[in-house]
Specification:
Elements lengths: L2 H7 L8 E7 L2 H10 L7 E7 L17 E8 L3 H4 L1 H5 L2 H21 L3 E4 L3 E4 L2 E13 L2 E12 L18 H5 L5 H16 L5 H9 L7 E4 L2 E2 L8 E7 L5 E4 L5 E6 L2 E3 L1
Parallel strand pairs: 1-2
Antiparallel strand pairs: 2-3, 3-7, 4-5, 5-6, 6-7, 8-10, 8-13, 9-12, 10-11, 11-12
Helix pairs in contact: 5-7
The structure holds biotinyl-5-AMP.
Length: 268
């Protein structure tokens, strides 16, 4: 992977600029620095290797060289997410889902893999994590200046952290497929889907498609976050689907419905 071949490969996409690094701390951090230098909407940062890749809540994301995809897209059309009506409709959650859905649909449609989204931000194949999404916001005072949509995809087996290095089993595209794949082809396909679904972020079809691709629907899971009353740590529920804010909707063992805004799920 290098800047020239990336530029050629992505030439037909309406990107707001491209920065490529053989090695960087984190593409999300670089995108934030670029926002400070006035990055425009759809500016893209790609790295071959990350030395301080970021997961949610201060967790780490591992990206060794030559094996994975790590990129961040600057979203400056923040009206998209910060307009009051859109914030109430879960603008930022939808942006996280946009990344996960684009990876999930690419794996299904281009590679025939049975990919699923583990709410809210992971992409699984065969119950193992193959990609993660991290959306971070950049504020000037009280004004949302940009959102940064960061996506990491494990492509070849060297990208998969060793046993015990992750809290959840991990895999990669090539192991799931049993064949070599081109990182830039995946990047092109994921970006294409991000761009086309971004226009439909608040359409009913977006939540529906996201819901269709959720893993563990109809199954019992444990919540690893909070519900609307902040009391759902480890609460047991059967996944029903999503509401219009992109919150996960479940029913508890008494048949009562509840929703979860933040956190994650794990199988029981
Ligand atoms: C995520 O967080 O899954 C978000 C990952 C986002 C990474 C992209 S890469 C481009 C951009 N730049 C960045 O710096 N970040 C974004 P979370 O759900 O919190 O999962 C993190 C957990 O996943 C870690 O604590 C590990 O257990 C596990 N993990 C770390 N690296 C992994 C990998 N390569 N494959 C599978 N699991 C991994």
């Amino acid at each position: 992977m290098d800047l020239l071949s990336l530029e050629q490969r992505l030439a037909d996409l309406p990107l707001g600029g491209l920065r490529y690094f053989d090695r960087i701390d984190s593409t999300n951090l670089e995108a934030a620095r670029w926002v400070d230098e006035e990055a425009v909407d759809l500016a893209l940062v790609v790295a071959d290797e990350q030395t301080a890749g970021r997961g949610r809540k201060g967790r780490k994301w591992i990206t060794p060289s030559g094996a994975a995809l790590a990129f961040s897209l600057v979203i400056r059309e923040t009206a998209l997410i910060s307009r009051e009506s859109n914030l109430q409709r879960g603008g930022l959650v939808r942006l996280t889902a946009l990344g996960a859905l684009a990876v999930c649909l690419t794996l299904k449609e281009e590679y025939g893999l049975p990919a699923r989204i583990k709410w809210p931000n992971d992409v699984l194949v065969g119950g193992e994590k193959l990609a993660g999404v991290l959306v971070e916001t950049h504020w000037y005072g009280e004004r949302l200046a940009a959102a940064i949509l960061g996506v990491g995809v494990n492509v070849s087996p060297q990208s998969v952290p060793k046993n015990g290095a992750t809290s959840f089993p991990a895999t990669c595209v090539e192991s799931a497929l049993g064949a070599p794949v081109q990182r830039m082809a995946i990047l092109r396909a994921v970006l294409g889907r991000i761009l086309s679904w971004r226009r439909r972020l608040f359409d009913p079809a977006f939540i529906l498609t996201w819901e269709e691709n959720l893993t563990w629907r109809g199954e019992w899971v444990q919540i690893t976050g909070e519900n609307e009353k902040s009391t759902a740590q480890f609460q047991l529920g059967k996944i029903i689907g999503l509401d219009q804010q992109g919150h996960l909707v479940l029913c508890d063992p008494n048949g009562e419905t509840f929703s979860v805004k933040r956190g994650g799920v794990r199988q029981v």
